[in-house]
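Morning, I've got a small favour to ask if you have a moment. I owe you a coffee for this, so here goes:

…
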Amino acid sequence: MRTPPHKTIERLSQYRRALLMVHDSDKTHIFSHEIAKIIHITPVQVRRDIMLIGYTGTLRKGYNVKELIDLIGDIIDSDTMIRVCVVGVGNLGRAIINYFSGKRTKLSIVAVFDSNADKVGKKYSGIPCHDIAELDEVIRQEDIKVGIITVPADQAQITADRLVKAGINGILNYAPKSVLVPRDVHLEEYDMITSLEKVAFYVKSD
């Protein structure tokens, strides 16, 4: 199977999250319109994506929840553990660490970094906090491949540059400023202010 489009990968992750919730309620089968309702898209889009990954359900029962969870995992998960770090242990950094802990078997936050001496040496959800000066060394020692940036805006590009130099292959940037990375480093950026303004625009327009 060819690598699915970027947006499809994003939706597959959302489907799995919805399916895991359903699976926890002991539901064994689900229809496309039920998945669509949970994540607020159309049933047609759900069916297209699931057909794209080579899976089909039945008219009478729909999709087998466990089988679909496993198939999505085979497609989007790595064969081996991917190790992740968080740079910036402010309120957002701590929230991400706490939320992420134990959520995925193939992704693991193994180190966090901060420049605040009061935070260095402490553990957050069992994960040690290192001085930012040790970033290169720890990333190489721990074979970390993904970095999550939660630093202030004026430190975003500096942090991204350091992560790239240390050998990071993927960056998720939560800082309120876009960063530039080489083409061979995958970058995802999430701007909470833009998202909030978008919601506010539609509220204003109602």
